[in-house]
Every structure is written in structure tokens, then in C-alpha cells.
Amino acid sequence: MPIDTTKEDVITLAIESSCDETSVSVLKNGRTVLSNIIASQIEQHQKFGGVVPEVASRKHIENINMVIEEALEEAKVSFDDITHVAATYGPGLVGALLVGLSAAKAIAFAKGIPLNGVNHIEGHIYANFIEHKELEPPFICLVVSGGHTHLVYMEDYGSYEVLGKTRDDAAGEAFDKVARALGLGYPGGPQIDRLAKMGNKEAILFPKAYLEEGSYDFSFSGLKSAVLNYLNSQKMKGNSISVEDVAASFQQAVIEILVEKTIACAVEKETKQIVLAGGVAANSGLRELLQNKAEEKRIDLKYPSLQLCTDNAAMIGCVGYYNYIRGYRSSLSLNGVPNLKIGEVHS
């Protein structure tokens, strides 16, 4: 669909509530962030060792209006200045999604402006457009987060080919489960990354699942089980456990698979651009290894700043903007879709 080349500024109000962050952002023309407010629930969920859906939904209800007001105030705009509203409608926790989506619908209806439903995974990819103003498709994107691990070829705005995805645990999910087994608490990814810097990544040889030849899919369930088995066997033998070595060896096994398949994918697609996205994109070991391997192949690697790696509304607003100028609109009957796939569109 052709892009509208209107010269008027498009002001997007975006809402993200797919998991445990209530976030609202205001953007101008898709890539200029005027505000990006994030109310995190990490403290509420830490005592449970992970996100409790019912608790998350209740906190979103408590936070949503306050965060909207703060985002408008920081951006120095009012509801009258907003061109359209963008909101995450999947994938995610259905109760959490409905809080943000309902708020977006209410604003769209009250102000008589368009609503644009946004896919959360697409949002992570588009975070790179905010960070790197010069970035344009096509490119290969590795999306790695707590719930998703995807290798995606983005041919154009809104045009995706999913080349690989996880068959069981996502990379971030594996990080959280191993961190819990090591007694590191939630969220586990940053803790593993921190300890890995102090450990020996070659201390323990954990298995890496490459799957069948030519596959770009991922599987981390076996690796997670291998770590748990190692910890149990060491405890039964009365041996001391170096948490740092376990963290470093586990992390290395994960990132080697991610990097090897990403580079192979880029070579096959003959693209000279790779972008990294999602919460695990903040992992320093992954960034370093992927950067080194990309340079060997003379491939340009881009990734977002740390704030744009985690769930945030700015990335949702960027997708919403490009959907809007391509003429896509969502109806006010749009529902939350917890298992929404990338490239799938509901109106």
C-alpha cells in the first residue's frame, strides 16, 4: 500500500501494556520521541519470581491514566494535538493488553481520531528506527525477549518473513528460569549477564541445539534442563558451585546459537544489515559476539539503547505511525490477541 506523503506533522499517542510495564509515549512523525513514560512493576513481581498476570492487570488499571497524563505533559501537547492513537493488541497477557487497548479506544472515540492496533513483536523491531534515523529496510532482525525469539527478514515496512522462531522456551525465558535456579531472583537476564562477566565461559560444556540442518529455529529447553541437571548433580556430590562459571557457560551456549543462526540467515538473504531487538538485546555478551561476527562478514549491526530494548510505548508508536501513513486503521471493536503472530493483522 502506498505511503501518504502529507507534509503535516503526525502526532502519535502510543500505549503499551502487554506484560508488566505500563508505558505511554508521544511521537512526532514516527521517529521523534517527545515523551516515553514507563511505569515498571518489577518490584511487585519480584517476590513471586516472575510476572503474575492478575497482579499485572490490576497495576495497569492503577497506572494507566496517570502515565497518559505524564506523557502528554512531558511532550507539551494536549489530546487536541493528537493525530491518532496506537496501542499494543498482542501478543501478551490478555488482561494486561485489554487495559491499554481500552484506554486507547476511549481516547480515539472521544476525540474522533483513528485507532491503530500494533503487534508487540513489530514494536521491538521498530525501536531501531527510533534509535537509528537513517535505518531503512530490508534487513535481518533477531528479536530476543522473555516471550519471543524470532529471526525475521523485514523486506519493507509492514512486510515480514519469519525465517526462524523458538520451538519451546524463548531465550529470555531460559535466562529467567536458570537465574531462578541459581537463586538470582527476577528478572534473571541482567543478573546472568552481570555474573557472566566474572565467570569462565568455557568452564562447563553445556549442549547447544542446532536442530536439523538448514533450520533457523531455536530450542533452549534442553539447555535449560542441562543446567538444572548440572546444579542437582553437583549438590548431590557435595561439590561447590561457581555461580559465575555457570552463568558464563550458560550465556555463552545461548548467544553462540543466536549469533550463528543470525549470521547464516543474513548471508543466505544476501543482506548487509542486521538489527537486534527485544529485552535480551540488552545483553552485553550477545551484543559483543554478534558485533564481532558481523564485522567478519562486513555486515552492519544496529541495536537500540537499553531503554528501547525493554517494553516501551515509543516503539509501539513508531509502528503505529507507519501503519497510519500507509492507510491502515483499526476498528473500535479490536480485541486483544494474546498469541498474535508477526505479520498477522486484525482490524
Low-confidence stretches: 1-5
| Number of continuous helical runs | 11
**What Rg, in angstroms, do the CA atoms define?**
20 Å
Ends distance:
16 Å
Which geometry do the CA atoms define?
globular
The main sheet comes to: 5 strands, mixed
Strand proportion: 15-25%
Secondary-structure-derived class = alpha/beta
Which CATH C-level class of the largest domain is it?
Answer: Alpha Beta
Could you give the order of the helices and strands?
A: EEEHHEHEHEEEHHHHEHEHH
**Extended strand count:** 10
Keywords: Acyltransferase, Cytoplasm, Hydrolase, Iron, Metal-binding, Transferase, tRNA processing
Subcellular location: Cytoplasm
EC number: 2.3.1.234
Enzyme class: transferase
Layout: helices, strands, pairs:
Elements: E1 11-16, E2 21-28, E3 32-40, H1 42-46, H2 53-75, E4 84-90, H3 94-111, E5 115-119, H4 120-131, E6 139-144, E7 149-156, E8 159-165, H5 171-181, H6 188-196, H7 221-236, H8 243-269, E9 273-277, H9 284-296, E10 300-302, H10 306-309, H11 313-325
Helix pairs in contact: 2-3, 4-11, 5-6, 5-7, 5-8, 6-8, 8-9
